[in-house]
Amino acid sequence: MPIISTDFFGNLNKKPVFWRELLKFAKLEGTKIYVISGLWPKELVEKLEFSGYTRGIHYDGVYSILSHLSKKGLDTWFDEDHDSWYSEKNDWWNAKAEICQEINCQTHFDSDIRFSAAFEDIPTRFIYTEDEHNRSLVNQWRKDLFEANTFDDWEDGYMSMMSGMVPM
Fold first, then answer.
1. Which of 85, 90, 125, 153 is paired with 71 by a 20 to 30 Å CA distance?
2. Taking 90 as the threshold, does the pLDDT of residue 84 lie above it?
3. Coil, strand or helix at 167
4. CA torsion angle for 89, 92, 98, 104 (degrees, to 10)?
């Protein structure tokens, strides 16, 4: 079963209608989907729910960079001036790749290029969603998933509706 992951900030919160549709159709195709973001898991789930994402329909679970680093015993802190979390060295920027490796994720979608370097030595493909070429590939994938998961045969519907009727 394929496994993909995506970040919340810059992807799911930026274009929720697009991502809800893409993730729903990917799940219908049997893909496991995880959201990996910096927030604590409870806060991330709240943000997902507020944005219209439903566990089981759009994603299978969440992973938190803060939880990941905390389990490793690494320090993190919140910088109120920059409204962002930080950690020593590159621990923060390596965390998503480490999580993807743990869950055997094939592809990770992210709008922050600073995470990409850590993916160079693992089998997970990093898709930078702010790149125009990558964005067009993701759009095409959504279109392909939409077409594979919707069936609108108006002719069959029309014929069954008209069966038994005799034109006058």
1. 125
2. no
3. coil
4. -160
Write out the residue range of the structural domain in which residue 108 sits.
Answer: 3-162
Closest CA to 11 of 33, 40, 42, 41: 33
CATH of the domain at 108: 3.40.50.1000
Q: How many domains does the chain have?
A: 1
pLDDT band at residue 85 using 50, 70 and 90 as cut-offs: low
Asked, for residue 149, whether it belongs to a domain, the answer is yes
Q: Is residue 167 part of a domain?
A: no
- Tell me, yes or no, whether 168 lies in a domain: no
CA atoms within 13 A on the CB side of 72: 17
DSSP bridge pairs for 4: 33, 107
pTM score, two decimals?
Answer: 0.82
